[in-house]
Amino acid sequence: VGIRWSGMARTARGSGRTTVMMAATGAAGASKARDSEASDRRGDRDEIESGGRKGGEQGHGGLFAEQEKERALAAEEVKVRARRKLMEMLAFIVFLVLFTCNALMQRPVEASHDFSKEFTAATLEGASFSSTTYFKGIRDVGTVDDFWTWMVECPMQYLYIDRSYNGSLFGPDFQGTTWRVNGNNVIVQRPRLRQVRVEPQTCKIPKRMKAKVGYGDQQTCIPKVQDAEIDKTTWWALELNSSFVMVQRPVPFYSASQLSSSSFTSRASGSPLSYDGGGFIQDFPLNMSNAQFVGFLQALRAGGWTDSRTRAVFFDYVVYNVALNLFLSTRLLFEFLPYGFVRSSNSIRVMRFGYVRLSDLSLLVLDIFVYVTVFIWLGLLILRVSKERRRVLRDVWFCIDLVNIVIFMITLGYKVQYYNMVKDFIGGYPDPSVAGSPSQESPVFGSGRGETGFLQRYMDFDALGWYSNQITNWTGFNALITWLKFLGYLQYLNPAVSRLILTLARSAKDVTIFTILLAIALWAFALALYVSFGSEMDEFKSVNLAYINVCKSLVQGLDFDKIRQVNVFLGPLLFLLFQFICFFFLLNMFIAIIMESYEIVREQEEKVTLMSYLREKLSHVIGTTVHPVPVHIDNNDSDKGAGREEANLEDNGKVQQNVQKIQADIELVLASLVDFRKEMRSLGKKVHQITETGGKGHYPTNFLE
């Protein structure tokens, strides 16, 4: 644009008439000196700005006044948004600090870890068979004989011990028990054995394998627990009579609701296996001696308390450490497998309940503050939904807020349920009407009264520990989302964070498609490995284990030696296909997606920066050199004045259109510059390549072109 508009504005006052004179002139004459011309320009610009402002105050300031008004409104809007975002960020930082303190105080992590590990090492893993000359512990249990040998010889090494290391007797605890576990840990309730039995059924077998001639192709067998009916016929247990003599007595089957027990899922094998909370129970009274405890177990073994119908035996006991204010639940599971072996596993859960110490009360106060804030936050989101309706679903940060609040609500539900389960236990169960339950005071199961006379109901501490773990698990996952959401505020402070978030947002669709393709490819390899190698390799013996280990192989790689040892042909083939498809192709495709999105974001960022600069310069040039059209307004002739104002607005509209056309042309030029920049980068790489090789490389004839 080689034309410069200049003019002059003067305000004439007199006898009710205001006149604004404007004229368009060409370029300055060559005869004028540069310093004189610059001085005239500054004078003209000042006069134009003053005239435009005066005209804007009177309603006919022209293009400059409209631009000034738009700039003021835009600046004010930016200030309001910045102020709102700043207040929102400060409020979120306060909430983040409170929530972080709340998450850190959910449980004493270090103390819980040390307590569980050291206790397990001293009891389960430290107790060895006394009938062997080498170390044999619970991990070595493999047969029914091993199970009973471990039960008779190992638990007695740390249960029902009433003396310290120096021979001094322990004093009575809160329920009159005079023995401890590892010296400092109080037993909370009676140790219990619970047996799950199944009904036999007919199984179809080949005729060659039938037991008797003419019996047919069916044989009675004891099926797996997941395929069988639970045996509920009366069984037997041992008790101490009033003379502390051990006698045998029939006992019925108790359901999970009668025992206040929950189902338990074993994950010792690849596929999870669930056991019902009911069964036949054998409790060990707290007031018996160590010798009587061993005698009970020997009598159970001799009497055949387990047989071919037994599919699982649980052994539960719970201790409490006064110094740490922590409960530790130990549940041992012995699975009697259909092929005659026994598989052992354990569940160790550490928990804390009750608001009795300063740390507990502090956690309660933080919970109140956090959830009051969450409910206020939820109300604001509901208000936003009522205003914007479905449009809010397009906002990614709104969806993240919604997920965050849903997890807070789930955690709150677990906390309420957990409190309801433990509140009566902390209070001591003063209601004597609950004595009819088999988990209460009875001659078979021993005394259930503490020294205060309150009935102590048998609690499923393993289930309580599960609820406690769910609270900490959901809180930990929510902490991850909450802290990642803080990046959304940092993008207003740091351009690098903004670039990162924009890259993730731009690549979200491609990454989603890539994730689906990767999941399908991993499933294909998991299925192949499960079918071909599952019977020989532990890593692939179930479908879920195969899929998990294939996912791990993305980082660790497949064990080539193992799969080649199992199948010398198929193993190497699957290994090579996995390396090529998952490593060389899919993972590099993921990197390419991220790099492409990052490059696009950078180019857009440079384009926006340069465009803002050019627009600012263009607005500055137009605002200082384009002057309003000369109009004469007669105060006594309002109709003429109105007509001139309409003409003025029409001329200003034309100028705005011209400005928009100029900006569109600049954007096209800018796009060409961006493409030119790419070509220059490519050319620079080629020149660098020539320079590095000294021009001795083999290049096509049109390489420099």
Give me some keywords for this one:
53% helix, 16 helices, seven-stranded antiparallel sheet, 705 residues, alpha+beta, 16 strands
Write the layout of secondary structure elements.
Layout lengths: L10 E4 L2 E4 L13 H25 L3 H43 L4 H14 L21 H10 L26 E2 L3 E3 L4 E6 L3 E4 L13 E4 L13 E6 L5 E6 L4 H4 L4 E3 L6 E3 L4 E4 L6 H13 L7 E12 L4 E11 L5 E10 L6 H31 L7 H32 L33 H25 L1 H4 L4 H12 L1 H26 L9 H14 L3 H7 L3 H56 L5 E4 L3 H56 L12
Can you describe what's shown?
There is one protein chain. The chain is 53% helix and 12% strand. The protein contains 16 helices and 16 strands. The strands form five sheets. Strands 3, 4, 5, 12, 13, 14 and 15 form a seven-stranded antiparallel β-sheet that branches. A three-stranded antiparallel β-sheet has the order 1-2-16. The protein has a two-stranded antiparallel sheet with strand order 6-7. It is extended and about 110 Å long. Residues 1-34, 51-61, 429-455 and 624-642 have low confidence and may be disordered.
Number of helical segments with 4 or more residues: 16
Q: What is the percent of helical residues? A: 40-55%
Mean pLDDT: 77
Structural class by sheet pairing and helices:
alpha+beta
How many whole angstroms does the radius of gyration measure?
A: 41 Å
- The best one-word shape is extended
Strand proportion: 5-15%
Number of strands: 16
Main sheet: strands, sense, barrel: 7 strands, antiparallel
Report how far apart the termini are.
33 Å
Low-confidence stretches: 1-34, 51-61, 429-455, 624-642
